[in-house]
Amino acid sequence: MLLFGNKFYIIFILLWIFGLYCILTTFHSTSNNDKIFEDRIEHLQNEVESLRQKLVQLQSENNINDQVQSGSNNAQCQELKNELKRLKRQLISKNDGGTISSRDEPSLEYEQLRRKIEMQAREISYFTTDQLNKISEKLSDQDKENWKNVILRFTDQNRVLLASIRNLTVVDGYQLWREHEHESLSKLMQARLNVLQNPSKSCQDVKRVTCNINKGCGYGCEIHHAMHCFHIAYALGRPMILFSDGWRYNPGGFDQVFQPLSRNCTKASATSASSWGNYDTADVVEIPLIDNIYPRKDFMPMAIPEDISERLIRLHGNPFVWFTGQLIKYFLRPQEWLSEFIEKKYHSINFQTPIVGIHVRRTDKVGSEAAFHDISEYMKHVEDYYIIYQYQNPNLKFTKRVFLATDEPSVFSDARSKYPDYIFYGDRAIAQSAQLHTRYGTESLKGVLLDVHFLSLCDYLVCTFSSQICRVAYEVMQQRVVDGAWRVQPLDDVYYFGGQNAHNQRAIISHKAIWPNEFSFDRGDIIGTEGNHWDGFSKGSDKTNGQSGLYPTYKTEEIVNIAKMYTYSEVRVNANEV
């Protein structure tokens, strides 16, 4: 029987097609003197008619056969949705004077400058707010009140500035290209990974790698370990065979929760694996933990493939995060029961946007790997996001929502009592299952999967990047949003990948040290960064002059690591079909 959701979807498609048809006929009646325009409109009308016929066929098939599986229905609906998106693109493009071409694409310099302006605005806010607060501490009580107004005024003006910057993508005319490029690159990556994992030859006849997911750490840590392996598999063009027997999160193994990585490369094809030192010659190579791998190669994290690097750097503010998100997209394809479980939860909590996700990690992290952060530290940035969002959309009325994920159940009552004007989504039972004595097992796994899923669906994240769960959610988020590098505010570390190759920045402006613990550097110097203090300063060392200490973040830029990897020349994706 056709599901209610699909009936609603078909009605929606009908209304959409009718609306497009009305628009097209309106344009047709007012442009009789333009033969090219007439031909274009006729072509679009034919597409609408073709879609209408497909819809009738879909409805007919569902009426005739009550046993049509919901998965098939969803696939057909998705196909219609994709065709309508292409039609929409053609219509908008026609209004702009033609199909998507080089004239409709932003330059690399424009995209980098747009992102740089946002970064600079945020760094100004970090530095100035920190300095104003330090001055305030030295003032009398009466002067503090006046100074508080100065801080509030600066904060508000900075929010208005960020709202204007973020609205650039709305008005610059390039968002259509960004969406299309995001979908095109994603489709290419998934096609490549499918070919990688399902070689046309017998698996015994191709070089391959193995990886054991059982690193003996938490979920986020083990997923990142697997991503380290999968990254290397992609770089070498070798299918990866995963070992997961006795996995602490599901003793029955990875394949009971997620789809198998391959149809024809199984553990039977992974006997007699050689050590990593023989990776360039051995038929089967076992990939060790990233911390123990030697020799290290330049294609390891956080490198991106050279053959798509130009596209990735123009598309995304953090290309490696996007690339890792695509690896995760293939790696964590859920089994049907898991998809149904997540979908049921999505509807039961009535998940809606706009929404900000916060991940509060306590228990084993505090005092060992991370400092304690009160809920107020998170909510300050949540409030900033919503005020900026309101400035971006001055006529929009919305409810302020927060998805709260934590391993400490008491955080829920703390947040709800202190911030009653927010709606908090979240599950105390999941937080309870994340306690150290109940953290491992299938039920706990379900909880962490829900947390990661809903965090990734949020519009913005506030978290500690010392937590791998937050970094996984941030990576998964990039599968959905276009150029979403800015959609996070970490409270401690910058984004990193455990065991990564050197994380370097380049000085774009020379600097002479004037603050305590600063070091001087020249334009062009390479600086190994160790973290951003979110007060206008980062910590690191100059690899050119040997000095180390603090440096002004705004005078540097990220260096994207680019490496030669297997190019998958056998994979072709038609961008016009995206």
Automatic annotation (TrEMBL):
Transmembrane segment boundaries: 7-27
CDD domains the UniProt entry points to: Fut8_like (cd11300), SH3_Fut8 (cd11792)
GO BP terms, alphabetized: protein N-linked glycosylation
InterPro entries: Fut8_N_cat (IPR045573), Fut8_SH3 (IPR035653), GT23_dom (IPR027350), SH3-like_dom_sf (IPR036028)
Record domain GT23: where: 205-491
Keywords from the UniProt entry: Coiled coil, Glycosyltransferase, Membrane, Transferase, Transmembrane, Transmembrane helix
Region feature Important for donor substrate binding, mapped onto this chain: 361-362
PROSITE patterns: GT23
An example Gene Ontology molecular-function term: alpha-(1->6)-fucosyltransferase activity
The UniProt record lists the keyword Membrane: yes
Coiled-coil boundaries: 34-97
UniProt keyword Membrane, yes or no: yes
Protein family according to the UniProt entry: Belongs to the glycosyltransferase 23 family.
Protein name (record): GT23 domain-containing protein
Upper taxonomic lineage: Eukaryota, Metazoa, Spiralia, Gnathifera, Rotifera
